[in-house]
Amino acid sequence: MKNPSDGNILDTIFKEYYAEFQQYEQTPNSRSSKIYVPIDCELLARRLRMDEHLLFGRLYYHLDQKYRYTQEDGSKVYLFAFKVGKDRHAVNFPLLAAVLAEHKLSFNRFMFPMAISCVALSVSIWAVLK
Questions:
Q1: In what order do the strands lie in the sheet with 36-38?
Q2: Alpha carbon 60 to chain centroid distance?
Q3: pLDDT of 93
Q4: Dihedral angle at the C-alpha atoms of 14, 66, 50, 109, nearest 10 degrees?
Q5: Is the pLDDT of residue 10 over 70?
Q6: How many C-beta neighbours within 10 Å does residue 13 have?
Q7: Contact present, 77 and 99 (Cβ < 8 Å)
Q8: Which end of the chain is more exposed for a tag (fewer CB within 10 A), N or C?
């Protein structure tokens, strides 16, 4: 079993359910909401090679708590909702996409200076040895 990062969990959900998010139609058999996409925690846990209860806990108790917010009118916007209409275990897909984009931006902000530092260190070592 693995313990993937928050970014890996969000990225896996995004890749697995992006097409479903886009295919929303307002019919009686469709999901309850355009923005809340129901997910299969068991399937995602297999893809991430982790325990499904641990995945659910990470989504429900950690990530939702971290990214949920309250709007000016007092309504709450959840990243992960236990139930939305008739759908269970649903993610707010636009919010998930925004959080994932922020994770990727933060990673790039860290890696770019790190790469420049490694190049500078290599040049310094090469100059000393020459």
A1: 36-38, 87-92, 80-84
A2: 12
A3: 96
A4: 60
A5: yes
A6: 25
A7: no
A8: C
